[in-house]
Design goal:
With 382 residues, this protein is of the alpha+beta class. The chain is 36% helix and 29% strand. The two termini are 34 Å apart.
Length: 382
């Protein structure tokens, strides 16, 4: 097979890039090791920056998002019994969209046709400094795709980053995880609630008016089996203001899992004709809702750079890594700050606790600080 762009990884990043390129007349194919049903079974973040929403519309797949997604103009931050609303729209002029990653992936699949090949194994990007190609096996048979460029959107554990020589990796692993529960219950609040308590962090989120997503901070040594539904709901209530806990509707969990929190950046994000995007190059803790959105900014830069290349301008591709990383590091800073602000850290000293409390008090007392939070939360400009 011969295409202009070969994309490794069939998550939202790879699919969105392929769809955007398709509308520009640039041919591509997406290689994904899992089945479509497996990909659509992943439960992931659902808070989209306004820039991501614009990309979905530009790709021609934003109609259902706009019809069924929920526009949120603010978020709540709870500190003990105190509730403070961050007016995202008023402070930044922008809002966010709550729309599940599963649903936006479904929208992209419906537009992709046969440009996705599922069930591939032994994928290897090759010829990166000359004439690139991707080898793989499908149903036991060897196959090859020749292309002008290879995009590695295959996640943290994928093969693409391993193909880049002299790569520098920066990272931090946090000493806790998030236990997440999805339930067919009405959300406790029309807007997300980030809650800091002496027992640890909690988040009240939602996917729709009949589907809620809740999280609590737990030790990394815990497993989902350690948290039957009754225990989870009881602990969640303890970490919320009483007025919120009293109106919480509980029910059987339909999905439950623990995700470790990690910050990670690999640089550079390109080598020859291979370009990394999304989790293949960077991961953020989910506190700032930046994981999927940081991947979308990579796709924005790649899409415009590839379109410019085929129109005769190679400068965008040459500068892709520097440009993408500049925004990635800002997302890392915000995610690290939100995580540090709202979680209980093991062996936290009284000095560190006082600084954390003071940081939160300053946030609530300063319009400039609140504006900075809002500006970052809705998404910095591309």
């Amino acid at each position: 097979m011969r295409v202009q762009v070969g994309i490794i990884g069939g998550g939202p990043s790879g699919l969105l890039l392929s769809q955007l390129l398709h509308l520009k007349g640039i041919s591509s194919v997406v290689l994904e090791k899992h089945s479509r049903d497996y990909v659509l079974g992943r439960i992931r973040a659902g808070v989209l920056e306004h820039g991501f929403c614009k990309l979905m519309r530009e790709a021609g797949v934003g109609a259902r998002m706009d019809a069924e997604g929920e526009v949120h103009e603010g978020i709540f931050i709870a500190d003990g019994e105190e509730m403070h609303r961050v007016d995202l729209q008023g402070l930044s002029g922008e809002s966010v969209m709550v729309y599940g990653q599963t649903e936006l992936t479904r929208d992209l699949y419906n537009a992709m046709g046969e440009r996705v090949i599922h069930g591939v194994e032994n994928v290897q990007p090759q010829g990166l400094l000359g004439d690139p190609f991707i080898t793989y096996t499908l149903n036991g048979a060897a196959a090859r795709i020749d292309c002008d460029f290879i995009i590695g959107a295959d996640g943290f554990h994928g093969v693409s980053r391993q193909a880049i020589l002299n790569i520098t990796e920066h990272g931090r692993t946090y000493p806790f995880g998030w236990l997440g529960v999805l339930s067919e219950t009405p959300p406790v609040s029309p807007e997300l609630i980030y809650s800091k308590s002496t027992r640890g962090f909690a988040l009240c989120s939602l996917r729709s008016q009949v589907l809620s997503r809740y999280y609590i901070q737990v030790p990394l040594s815990d497993s989902a089996e350690d948290w039957p539904d009754e225990k989870f709901w009881a602990e969640l209530k303890r970490r919320l203001p009483v007025a919120v806990a009293d109106r919480l509707v509980t029910g059987p969990s339909i999905e439950k899992s623990i995700a470790p929190l990690r910050s990670f950046v690999a640089e550079p994000m390109q080598h020859g004709r291979l370009f990394l995007a999304g989790d293949a190059a960077h991961i953020v803790p989910p506190t700032g809702a930046k994981g999927l959105n940081a991947a979308a900014s990579d796709i924005y830069y790649l899409y415009h750079a590839l379109a410019a290349y085929y129109a005769g301008d190679e400068a965008g591709l040459a500068g892709y890594s520097d440009r993408a990383l500049a925004r990635v590091w800002k997302a890392q800073r915000f995610s690290w700050w939100m995580t540090s602000l709202l979680h209980r850290f093991p062996e936290q000293s009284s000095f560190e606790q006082q600084l954390q409390d003071t940081d939160l008090d300053y946030l609530f007392s300063s319009e400039c600080a609140m504006k900075s939070l809002a500006e970052n939360y809705v998404g910095l400009p591309y």
